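job 3f2a | input accepted
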Amino acid sequence: MIKWIFFDLGSTLLDESSRVQEMMEATAARLGLKLNDFEAMMERAAPAHPYALKMELPGGAAWEPWPKRLDPLYPGVPELLQGLHKRYHLGVIANHGVDTAQPLGIAQYLDVIVTSEELGFGKPDPRLFTLALERAHCAPEEALMAGDRLDNDIVPAKQLGMQTLWVRQGWGGKFIPMSEEFMPDWQVDRLEDMLTCFD
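job 3f2a | predicted structure (199 res):
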């Protein structure tokens, strides 16, 4: 039985689409490509790459860095967390800053927050997941990890025995998993649809 639900932040609770677009525009310009051509190249590559925004670029070119700002929540996230918090303990396991949840107005729903900034290493390192479970005093089989990236969120959580929910938002949702290690317990196209899985 699920007692804890842990969430990723970027492209799971937070809508990164504006920052992603800026980064893609800047990267296309660096490569001397029209944005439409670059986006088409990305779309072709995405099904074979767990996260196309990390894929190797032509000529070994580097991606432009992420613009530095906090992304907004997807619509309906506060209401979703408020409802879930009445029945489950909630937490975050994310490659973000320690204080990200506070300015977003969702900290009151989160009982455990484990971030890469706090620990000095990031997902998919299983130590983030292990620490979250330890702080929650929760057995892996009693926890669910919800995230947009199979490589960063689903695979390490599965390896520890957690249940998993793939939220197919953003570029991580374009990947087509071809092996058992990537297969989540559930998958949804929008975070709000998670309630149809197990609630």
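job 3f2a | The longest strand covers residues 89-94.
job 3f2a | closed
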